[in-house]
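User: Could you check the structure of this?
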Amino acid sequence: MVPRHVLGGAGHTPPSEKLHIAGIGIGGQGRWDLQNVNSENIVALCDVDWDYAGRTFKQYPKARRYRDYRVMFEKEKGIDAVVVGTPDHIHAVVSMMAIKLGKHVYCEKPLTRTVHEARALGEAARKAKVATQMGNQGMAFEGNRLINEWIWDGAIGPVREVHVWSDRPTHSGKPPLYWAQGIDRPKDTPPAPETLDWDLWLGPAPYRPSGLRAVPVAGLVGLRLGWARRYGYS
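Assistant: Sure, the predicted C-alpha cells are below.
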C-alpha cells in the first residue's frame, strides 16, 4: 500500500478527487468557459443544437450528451457543479434548478434579466450553501477593481458625472467592430435549423417563430450572444 501521490507524481490530483462538472449551453461562450475548468472531470454536456455544439463534444468525447438540462439533472446525480453558457433569457431558470439540487454554479453574464430573478437566485444560493460565480471577463481586471476602491474610499471625492466611450457603434454607417448594434426585431419567420430544438431554446420565453437571421458576431461575448441575435430574441 502506497499513497496515491507516489504513483501520480508531485502535484498530481487523482480523478477520484476532481469535481464532476457539466456544461449547459456549450456551443459558444460556454465552450470557452469549460476550457478554464477542464482540469476537472467534464462528465456531461447539454445543448439544444448538437451541430453548433459539435466542437465541444469533440473536445470531451467521454462526456455524456443531452439536449434538455432537466433530463441531464435527472440522470446525472453525481454532478458537483455546472457551467451555464446559454443565451441570457434562460440563465436564471437553469441556475436556479442547479442551485436547488445542491450544485455549484458558474453562470455567464448577465446573471438574470430582472432584479427579481437576481434576488431569488441569491436567496436560493444562501439556503443551499453552494459556491456561485458570475462570469465577468473584462470587468475582473485589476484596473477596474482599483477604480472601485477609489470610489468606495472617497479618494476622488463624490462622483457626480461619468463619461463612457464605446467601441460598439450603433448605426454609424461603418461595419461593426464586434457585432451590429440596435438590431430591429425580424419581420420574417423562416424555420429554425433542423439541428436546433426551438422549443427548448425558448425555455421560459413565450412561444414565437424563430425569425432566423444571420448577424455577424465576433469575440468571446459575440460567441455567447450569437445564437440569441441570430434567432431574433431580445
